Amino acid sequence: MTSPADRDRILTAVEEAADEIVDFTAALIRVPTVNPPGEGYVDCAHLIGDRLAACGFEVEYHDGDGRPEHTAAHPRRNVVGRRRGRAARPLVHLNGHFDVVPVGDGWTVDPFAGLVRDGRVYGRGACDMKAGLASAVYAAEALRRAGVPLEGSIEVSGTVDEESGGWAGVALLAERGRVSSRDIDFVIIPEPLNVDRICIGHRGVYWFEVTTHGHIGHGSMPFLGVNAVSHMGAILEAVRTELEPALATRVTEVPVVPDAARHPTINVNTVAGGQVGETVQTPCVADRCSAIFDRRFILEEGFDATRAEILALLERTRQRVPQLRYEVKDLMVVDPVRTPDGSRLVSTLRHGIEEVLGREASLVASPGTYDHKHFARLAGIEHCVAYGPGILDLAHQPDEWCAVDDLVDATKVLALALADLVGAA
Ligand SMILES: [Zn+2]
After folding, report:
1. pLDDT tens-place string over residues 188-232
2. Which of these, 11, 290, 311, 39, lies nearest to 164 by C-alpha position?
3. 193 CA distance to ligand 1 centroid (A)?
4. Is 25 left (phi over 0), alpha (psi -120 to 50) or beta?
5. How far does the centroid of ligand 1 lie from the alpha carbon of residue 191, in Å?
6. In this structure, which residues have their CB less than 5 angstroms from ion ligand 1?
């Protein structure tokens, strides 16, 4: 473990850099990297890359060549910086996505001004997660300014498209072998999970589409047709009365927050039926209806059983409802992930949180997914957590903000963790 004198110097270096950390967060907010469609990515990647270079990192860029979303109008560009110590390993990789969700209504401040007021930084992406990116850069920089030599190495990456699945971001870096368990020991993603919580994983996702097929007929003589919307109604009713109560009885051992998300869930995202796309109503029996479902499953269920349960439910409904015809299409599957018990990464962060905040850290898991899935599944890196500044509930909200105190405290925790994991003893 890093010596008490080094720890003090690191904490002082973060405090002295507080204004720079806030300024850099605000500068990142001023680049409106809205996704979709993915604006300003090149500018933002270079803003991060230039700062990393100024902090002694070797910087490289990775474009989304070959991905359909990587277009001339909206190019995908990721940035990775590396500061090598005496040895290549151990290596801690800090990753933040720099895309933000659209602004939406209800703002009382300019979402892209980078306003700092009353101890808060405001703007779209303030907490999710430009504050986290600034924390990552300055946590590494604090070690340098404190004169703490590195035994291993540090990487900081800024990546795109987390909000839309991360395929041209972390997934691309993983598929190209740029992030891999061959080189990287630990990954920390400074997502806004609250400054005293460490996130050890997330639930699984199964998106699927069900389409019912009826038979068109005159709306005045519905008995001569088969109504696909009514049949979808029967399926929705089965989901509500059979599946939802069953899901409510299951609870995961993983500490998912909020509490209600410790149960598996299902949401109907969309229903579209009838003569879809017609601008005027048609006097017809609906011959087609589609619904998209968002099923979040827990580690204990697994994907195979989750899917089999859906298929069985649909089959029971078909047997009950005359002439019901349906098909199912899988749209997206993400397996749940979980950092291994006893991970040194978790205990190190935990210790840092207690040292900086003077209170106990708690372990949580996320109800939704984030880039952890790509680090775990594609890059094969088991020791991955999310820890960063900002309040989870403010993500994607109007008047999104991050407290300056959180920003500084999370940077301290990350800096101490870096010192313990890769600093010279
Ligand atoms: Zn995020």
Report:
1. 999 999 999 999 999 999 999 999 999 999 999 999 999 999 999
2. 39
3. 9
4. alpha
5. 5
6. 128-129, 191
In angstroms, rounded to a whole number, what is the distance separating the alpha carbons of residues 126 and 111? Answer: 9
**What is the residue whose two structure tokens read 């474009």?**
63
pLDDT band for position 397 (50/70/90)? very high
Cα 97 to ligand 1 centre (Å): 7
Provide the b/e sequence for 298-329 (b: ≥16 CB within 10 Å).
bbebebeebbebbeebbeebbeebeebebeee
Catalytic residues, which ones? 99, 162
Note the pLDDT tens digit of each residue in 289-317. 999 999 999 999 999 999 999 999 999 99
Full 3-state SS string of the chain: CCCHHHHHHHHHHHHHCHHHHHHHHHHHHCCCCECCCCCCHHHHHHHHHHHHHHCCCEEEEEECCCCCCCCCCCCCEEEEEEECCCCCCCEEEEEEECCECCCCCCCCCCCCCCCEECCEEECCCHHHHHHHHHHHHHHHHHHHHCCCCECCEEEEEEECCHHHCCCCCHHHHHHCCCCCCCCCCEEEECCCCCCCEEEEEECEEEEEEEEEECECCECCCHHHCECHHHHHHHHHHHHHHHHHHHHHCCCCCCCECCHHHHCCEEEEEEEEECCCCCCCCCCECCCEEEEEEEEEECCCCCHHHHHHHHHHHHHHHHHHCCCCCEEEEEEEEECCEECCCCCHHHHHHHHHHHHHHCCCCEEEEECCCCCHHHHHHHCCCCCEEECCCCCHHHCCCCCCEEEHHHHHHHHHHHHHHHHHHHECC
Query: How many angstroms is it from 370 CA to the middle of ligand 1?
Result: 7
Q: Identify the CA nearest to 249 among candidates 309, 303, 331, 304.
A: 309
